[in-house]
Specification:
With 382 residues, this protein is an alpha/beta fold. It folds into two domains: 134 residues, Aspartate Aminotransferase, domain 1 (Alpha-Beta Complex), CATH 3.90.1150; 236 residues, Aspartate Aminotransferase, domain 2 (3-Layer(aba) Sandwich). The strands form three sheets. Strands 2-8-7-6-5-3-4 form a seven-stranded mixed sheet, with helices on both faces. It has a three-stranded antiparallel sheet with strand order 9-10-12. It has a two-stranded parallel ribbon with strand order 1-11. Strand 3, helix 4 and strand 4 form a beta-alpha-beta unit. Helix 1 runs antiparallel to helix 8, helix 2 packs parallel to helix 8 and helix 3 runs parallel beside helix 4. Pfam families: Aminotran_5.
Length: 382
């Protein structure tokens, strides 16, 4: 039987329509978009079209779209680029304890450089308190970075409320919306953010391409030194084919977002219901009232992550212990540690299941039955 994929939060299969859109670009549009001849102009035309598509997907204008190599680079450009450009205004940065490592490790590096970083806590719901943010704000705060949807738990942070709080403050507001885009409506104007990160491979596009939305007038110090691409914000020849594929993925996800969201909610409910019907002992992590339907993080008492993932894989189930970037690690989840405290069993017995185009109603139920079988077996032997 074909393995069942429950790890769409790590990466998604590239849609056939995206591949078909990319092939002729790879074969025929090989010019450098910065060249003035026919071949360069053809590439530039595709790049401009893609930029318009991405701007439309974010309700931004085209000048505010910066193409990058993915979510990590976009996060790093937003954080280091804005801090470097605004260091004369202060040296205080605010983030949260549950960020993706692309943000957390960037913040830790800035601490080494002498910046003062405040890490906002979360409670068992997985959400940040706006009151905590308000108390942490200082006159010398120059950046607040808070993710939109957590990659391990699917919990949605109060981004609009945070933006309202920051509206009259000098601090720039950045959000990593990698897990939100394609699942939630991401309108940069309505959200009120200055900087926002998305990436292609989370919405069934190619890997290696992302976008940083940078609100017009936001000063960014470039992290790469070379040509003057992307309005001097990101040097390097643009990846025309992958950017074109990214734009195609955005077109498709915008057309289908409402129907797909309803379907993934159905999958999540079917999955949890099947576990219950199979008599599995489990607990859901985080506040499900403030969570996306594509991700569910489940604690299985009496088990441990390493055994679970190994046995799931042997039974043809692809899942994750959290961030794909640390999937080889058996260290406790930093997100669940922030939510439940160090030493809590949930930090070492919880699995993330995430749904998407590789799923069907049938394989969701089959997958849940296999998961139940493994969990019950391991619970007895532990």
């Amino acid at each position: 039987m074909k393995p069942i994929y429950f790890d769409h939060a790590a990466t998604t299969p590239v849609r056939s329509e995206v591949i078909q859109a990319m092939v002729p670009v790879l074969e025929e549009v090989y010019g450098n978009p910065s060249s003035v001849h026919y071949y360069g102009r053809k590439a530039r035309q595709l790049l401009d079209q893609a930029r318009a598509t991405l701007a439309g997907g974010l309700h931004a204008n085209e000048k505010e779209i910066v193409f990058t190599s993915g979510g990590t680079e976009s996060d790093n450009l937003a954080i280091f680029g804005s801090v470097e450009a605004r260091k004369h205004l202060g040296n205080h940065i605010i983030t949260t304890t549950v960020e993706h490592h692309a943000v957390l490790h960037a913040a830790e590096e800035l601490e080494k450089e002498g910046y003062d970083v405040t890490y906002l806590p979360v409670d068992e719901s997985g959400r940040v308190s706006i009151q905590d943010l308000e108390q942490a704000l200082r006159d010398d705060t120059i950046l607040v970075t808070m993710m939109y949807v957590n990659n391990e738990t699917g919990i949605i942070q109060p981004i609009q409320e945070a933006a309202q709080l920051l509206a009259n403050h000098q601090a720039l507001f950045h959000t990593d919306a990698v897990q939100a885009f394609g699942t939630l409506e991401v309108d940069v104007t309505a959200l009120g953010v200055d900087l926002l990160t998305i990436t292609s491979h989370k919405i069934n596009g190619p890997k290696g391409v992302g976008v940083l939305y940078s609100k017009e007038g936001t000063m960014l110090a470039s992290r790469q030194h070379g040509g003057e691409q992307e309005r001097k914000r990101r040097a390097g020849t643009e990846n025309t084919a992958d950017i074109h594929g990214f734009a195609k993925a955005v077109e498709l996800v915008r057309q289908e977002q409402e129907s797909q969201s309803a379907l993934y909610k159905q999958y999540r409910e079917q999955f949890i219901q099947t576990l219950a019907e199979q008599g599995v002992n489990y607990e859901l992590n985080g506040d499900r009232e403030h969570a996306v339907d594509t991700i569910v993080n489940i604690s299985f008492p009496g088990t441990n992550v390493e055994q679970l993932l190994t046995n799931f894989d042997l039974d043809g189930i692809a899942a994750s212990s959290g961030s794909a970037c640390t999937a080889g690690s058996v260290e406790p989840s930093h997100v669940l540690t922030a939510m439940y405290g160090a030493g809590n069993d949930r930090t070492t017995n919880s699995i993330r299941f995430s749904f998407g185009l590789a799923n069907t109603e049938e394989n969701v139920v089959q997958g849940a039955e296999k998961v139940a079988k493994v969990v019950k077996r391991l619970s007895k032997t532990s």
